[in-house]
Amino acid sequence: MKIAVKDIEPNPYRNLKKYPLSRSKIEGLMVSFKEAGYHGGLLARKHPTKSGKYQIAFGHHRLQALKDMKIEYASDTAVHELSDDMMHKKMFVENHETWGARPCCVLENVEAARNRLNSVLAKYDTLEEMKLARESTSQLFSNQQGFANAKRKDQGLVGEPTISKYLCNMYSENEIRTAIEVLKETDKPDGDIDINAVKVLPKLSHVRHFRSAVKKYDIPKKKQVEIAKQIVEEGVGRRGVAPIVAKHSTKPIVPEPDKPVLEIKRLLENIDSQACTLHNNIMSLRKKMKQMGIEELKGAKVWLAGSALKRLFNEMKRLIKE
Predict the structure, then answer these.
(1) Is the dihedral of CA 258, 263, 216, 99 positive or negative?
(2) Assigned domain for 309 exists
(3) pLDDT tens digit sequence for 58-87
(4) CB under 8 Å to 194, separation ≥6 — which residues?
(5) Do the domain assignments include residue 299?
(6) Under 8 Å between Cβ of 74 and 175
(7) Residue 72, Cα to own-chain centre: how many angstroms?
(8) What residues contact residue 13 under an 8 Å CB cut-off, 6+ apart?
């Protein structure tokens, strides 16, 4: 179908302000159109409220290339009846096929899925109501308990398992959890993380280390994009993220204790814990003896226990002297 470019609007569920299109991809498409012509590639539905207008499910880079080239009509545009959920699903697939598991793609898909599910679940009190309204998302829940758990009214947010199902399991629950944590932080005006820096990073594993390091070294938001670009340019793995972030810190760096020191600290903590347990057991034994009218214990077991306590005491004395 041939549609005037001016009558085509973006997918209403794409947040192009927060997740802008790739300028390099648009320019690449413009070169391709000039050399080989434009041969379609847009999937659209009729606008639900504006007569004569259309909304595309995917193909936003192509549409922007047409606009930049002043091409008036988008030929061979496929127009179908698409539900709101189908508009979401087509957007998810396009993003994933284009960008894979890059943080910019995962964040956009997870945020859109979460917002969609929250808005739908808020309309209904039971799964039965949802099914009667023929909501396609009702298929995500096998029973009322699953529906109630997904709503998580105490937190006001749908959980990772439901989002994963809605996204056709294209991301793990751990990846979705990371994305949600980042979105919570970046949505707050006083949050510690700049979402623009996160979107630069190549993988979610880099994001996890970046978040931790930025907080540890008090890196201001205005510096974070620059650091993220350095991480990408140097091609470091996730374990190399923290050292790069640390170089940009003005906070005095406290050296990490050596592993042997940490092991000694752990062992001392265990000894302290076990000593407390031993003391409590001895006090319980004395109490029981008093209740039973026993003043003194005798026998081999008592002698062995006493000998063990003496050895422990002597060993601690030696440790303290050393």
Answers:
(1) positive
(2) no
(3) 999 999 999 999 999 999 999 999 999 999
(4) 186, 221, 222, 224, 225
(5) no
(6) no
(7) 41
(8) 84, 87, 88, 91, 112, 115, 116
